[in-house]
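Morning, I've got a small favour to ask if you have a moment. I've dropped the whole record in just underneath, so have a look.
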Amino acid sequence: MILTLIIVGVAVVLGVVYWIKRARDRRLLDQYSITPEALHALLAGKQETLIFDVRLPLDLLVASEIIPGAKRITPREVLKNPNLIPQDKDTIVYCTCPSEKTSRSVLRKALARNLSRIKFLQGGLDGWKAKGYPVEPYTQSFHLDTGS
């Protein structure tokens, strides 16, 4: 009986700690996100903003399009060398992963390196296209390195 109460108590404490950490992470990530509408307004206002397409190569095969003005960079490159993201410019990253997994990984790595002028695009490329915003064909060659 006492052992059961201890196990239940530990499980409750672990659950609460997990929930608090998850909520804190969600608030932090929400602070570093941008909606397609807000990005479109930035670009329409001619504000200097760098956009990086950080999709995996196989994702690029499925949708060979890119947001106009975006630069293609593989997740592996940016995770190995976060200095590819400038510290002194507003930067947006996007992908096509469910719940922006790749963009969030890049964001976390950048934040760990004190790069605070970076955001990820909510909904990624799919969210951008769903709003009817422009895309252009991606015509550059790339390697099918499937590592993230």
Notes: The first strand starts at residue 33 and ends at 34. The chain has two domains: 1-31, 34-137.
